[in-house]
Design goal:
CATH architecture of the largest domain: 2-Layer Sandwich
Distance between the termini: 94 Å
Number of helices: 16
Shape: elongated
CATH superfamily of the largest domain: Reverse transcriptase/Diguanylate cyclase domain
Order of helices and strands: HHHHHHHEEHEHHEEEHHEHHEEHEEEHE
Length: 457
């Protein structure tokens, strides 16, 4: 029959943890115990394990006996171990016994609220109470049998352990490369690590403020006014942790900010932990990588893939708003002859000069790309036939004046052929590939008609 009780206890550890935590918060014990919820789960797990072991090892039951050696009893042994562990932490017998009574109460309540029949409930409740009686005998015996000298020594040993633990975690905190600020519920800085102190230009050594030197209370948003809106947004949210990216102009800087709530065991807000990381270099690298991925490395113009992506977006915009646009396909005349005669270095210079001169003619809103080899493409948004023709002719004229000298002093000049396709607001079923093909057809006609000219399809 006790197997059902064992299974029931094991299956309801979460219920037990939530119930004892509720009592601890309500009765004020939580302020003297761990602030970590997981610690309460472990305490229930340990207590349940001891209760199960006591039930399974004593088939004759858990009734008390005046001549029993309780040091060999699993329940009393649990009480002895807990007494030693809590006494050396400075916990009084009254405080420990008081909280233990609530532990006992939640296990009894678990049985009372179960679906067991009344007879089983009575037996299980008696077993549970006798288990807690044995636990109480264990830690009372231990407490009563210890002299003041032993208790003092235990406290001294435990204090040294806690000091060592504090120093270990302080070393970790101060060694963090990222600045960490601990801000209280009033918005004032009550702690910071060495990296944070360096941001504020505070002349200090790691851990200095933990050994008798207190920093003056400073409003966090007074030091970081650019985080005022971020801090307010975080306080308005319900999340435990929120991440932000913020940029500051003059000079341009980027920061990654982690905001985490510091909560006590009852869930009451105690303050905020800010971790601030300067990610300016990372952002610049991301921008550079993005630029490399979308830019032709030789000329600085958009590469084919990037241009095509942008052009597809512009065609979608045209379908929505109907603003006319022009598309230019541009090719250097006899470029192979330039490479064969003067070498590829000169050919590369010609391509770079062409891109630079083209960007000088085109507007900021235009998109210019290298389509492949010596062929370039330009998108002219919100441009009618007349305006597109003028821009194309201006390009042809400007590029025909490009001059590049080789090492022997020979002068290289070029001409270009341009195909132009203008899509007007009245057109329907405009397709990206079709418009590009039509501009390319116009370019082919320009070459066929003698080169160094603009042909509008």
């Amino acid at each position: 029959m006790t197997t059902k009780l064992v299974d029931y206890i094991i299956d309801h550890e979460d219920w037990l943890m939530e119930r004892i935590l509720g009592y601890a918060i309500k009765r004020g014990y939580s302020q003297y115990t761990s602030t970590l919820k997981e610690a309460w789960r472990l305490s229930i797990s340990g207590l349940s394990q001891s209760l199960v072991e006591a039930i399974q090892s004593r088939a004759e039951g858990l009734e008390l006996c005046p001549v029993e050696d309780y040091t060999k009893d699993p329940a009393a042994r649990f009480g002895i171990d807990e007494a030693q562990r809590h006494r050396e932490r400075g916990v009084s017998l009254a405080m420990f016994l008081g909280l233990m009574k609530y532990y006992q109460q939640v296990y009894v309540e678990l049985i009372k609220e179960s679906d067991f029949d009344n007879s089983a409930k009575s037996r299980y409740e008696n077993l549970t109470n006798r288990f807690f009686d044995r636990v109480e005998i264990g830690f009372c015996t231990t407490w009563a049998s210890s002299s003041d000298d032993i208790i003092v020594k235990e406290l001294q040993d435990r204090n040294r352990q806690m000091t060592n633990e504090k120093n270990k975690y302080l070393t970790i905190f101060e060694s963090l490369s990222r600045p960490v600020f601990i801000v209280d519920s009033l918005g004032q800085i009550e702690g910071m690590n060495h990296a944070a102190a360096n941001i504020l230009k505070i002349d200090t050594v790691p851990g200095e403020n933990y050994y008798g030197i207190d920093y003056p209370k400073i409003e966090f948003v007074d030091l970081f006014p650019w985080l005022k809106d971020t801090y307010r947004d975080f306080l308005d949210r319900n999340e435990i942790t929120v991440y932000y990216e913020k940029s500051i102009n003059d000079p341009l800087q980027y920061f990654y900010i982690s905001c985490s709530r510091s909560l006590d065991i009852s869930g009451k807000f105690q303050g905020t932990i800010f971790v601030i990381e300067d990610i300016t270099k990372r952002k610049e690298m991301e921008k550079e990588l993005k630029n490399l991925a979308s830019t032709d490395p030789l000329t600085g113009a958009k590469n084919r893939r990037s241009f095509l992506h942008l052009f597809e977006q512009e065609v979608l915009r045209f379908k929505r708003y109907g603003h006319s646009f022009g598309l230019i396909m541009l090719d250097i005349d006899h470029f192979k002859k330039i490479n064969d005669t003067f070498g590829h270095d000169i050919g590369d210079k010609v391509l770079k000069n062409l891109a630079a001169e083209s960007l000088g003619v085109l507007r900021d809103s235009d998109i210019f790309g290298r389509w492949g080899g010596e062929e370039f493409i330009a998108f002219l948004p919100e441009t009618n036939i007349h305006e597109s023709s003028m821009i194309a002719e201006r390009l042809r004229s400007k590029l025909s004046r490009i001059e590049v000298s080789d090492r022997k002093g020979r002068l290289v000049t070029i001409t270009v052929s341009i195909g132009l396709r203008v899509v007007t607001s009245g057109e329907t079923d405009v397709l990206v590939d079709e418009v590009i093909r039509e501009a390319d057809d116009a370019l082919y006609m320009a070459k066929k008609e003698g080169r160094n000219r603009v042909v509008l399809l």
